[in-house]
């Protein structure tokens, strides 16, 4: 069993989004329905693995990162998907990942 933490939508109390870069979003199927339980990976600009979480039952995920170029990859029984995001400053940055047939 993977030790990746399960995610939720709410930002934890005490997190100052003016000082943190938060990448958040949802894993979605092609029809727009949420995909819960997907493994969601954060890759740096060179494609190296940085972190992994398990999407919540509603497909939500969250990473604390730094400004820069990132790739979010979701792996699920419904298929896999990838999305790029480039936060340029601190704050909350949203990106959804659509998964399809593997």
In short:
By secondary structure, this protein is mostly beta strands. The protein contains no helices and eight strands. The chain has strands spanning 21-29, 39-43, 49-54, 60-65, 70-76, 79-85, 91-94, 97-99.
Model description:
- A hairpin with a 2-residue loop joins β5 (70-76) and β6 (79-85).
- The model has no long low-confidence stretch (mean pLDDT 87).
- This protein has strands at 21-29, 39-43, 49-54, 60-65, 70-76, 79-85, 91-94, 97-99.
- It is globular.
- The chain has one domain: Immunoglobulin-like.
- The chain is an all-beta fold.
Please state the average pLDDT score.
87
What's the story with the biggest beta sheet? 4 strands, mixed
Within CATH, the superfamily carries the name: Carboxypeptidase-like, regulatory domain
CATH architecture type = Sandwich
**Overall geometry:** globular
Count of helical regions:
0
Order of helices and strands: EEEEEEEE
Layout of helices and strands, plus pairs?
Elements: E1 21-29, E2 39-43, E3 49-54, E4 60-65, E5 70-76, E6 79-85, E7 91-94, E8 97-99
Parallel strand pairs: 1-7, 1-8
Antiparallel strand pairs: 1-4, 2-3, 2-5, 5-6
């Amino acid at each position: 069993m993977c030790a990746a933490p399960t995610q939720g939508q709410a930002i934890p109390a005490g997190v100052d989004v003016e000082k943190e870069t938060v990448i958040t979003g949802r894993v979605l199927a092609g029809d727009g329905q949420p995909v819960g339980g997907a493994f969601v990976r954060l890759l740096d600009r060179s494609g190296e693995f940085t972190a992994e979480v398990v999407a919540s039952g509603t497909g939500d995920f969250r990473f604390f990162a730094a400004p820069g170029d990132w790739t979010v990859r979701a792996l699920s029984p419904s298929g896999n998907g990838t999305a790029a995001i480039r936060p340029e400053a601190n704050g909350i940055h949203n990106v959804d990942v659509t998964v399809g047939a593997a």
